[in-house]
C-alpha cells in the first residue's frame, strides 16, 4: 500500500508539468492519464491531501510545481 502522500503529490505535479510541455496530442493524453491516476490514488488513500494550506492544496488548486508549493507551506509555518 502506498503510504507516502508527498511522493504522490510530487508525481502529480510532475505529470502536470510534462502534460503542459508535451508537443503532441498523444503526449498530452498520456501525461493527462498519469496525472488522473495520481489524483485518484491521492483521493482514495489520503483524505485531506489537498486541505487549504497544505502542499497538496498549492499543487492541485494553485497549480504550483511541487518545490514552489513546498516553499509556500514552509514559509507559512515559519
* Share of β-strand residues: under 5%
Spatial gap, N to C terminus = 32 Å
What is Rg?
13 Å
What proportion of the residues is helical, as a percent range? over 70%
Domain unit count = 1
Q: What's the rounded overall pLDDT mean?
A: 92
Major sheet: none
Q: What is the N-to-C succession of helices and strands?
A: HHHH
Q: Count the helices. How many? A: 4
Identify low-pLDDT runs. none
How would you sum up the global shape? globular
Question: Would you kindly provide a written description of the structure presented here, covering whatever features stand out?
Answer:
This protein is mainly α. The protein has one domain. The protein contains four helices and no strands. It has helices at residues 5-21, 25-45, 55-60, 66-77. Helix 1 runs antiparallel to helix 2 (25-45). The termini are far apart. 19% of the residues are buried.
Characteristic terms for this protein:
78 residues, mainly alpha
Chart the SSEs and their pairings:
Elements: H1 5-21, H2 25-45, H3 55-60, H4 66-77
Helix pairs in contact: 1-2
Overview in brief:
By secondary structure, this protein is an all-alpha fold. It contains 4 helices and no strands.
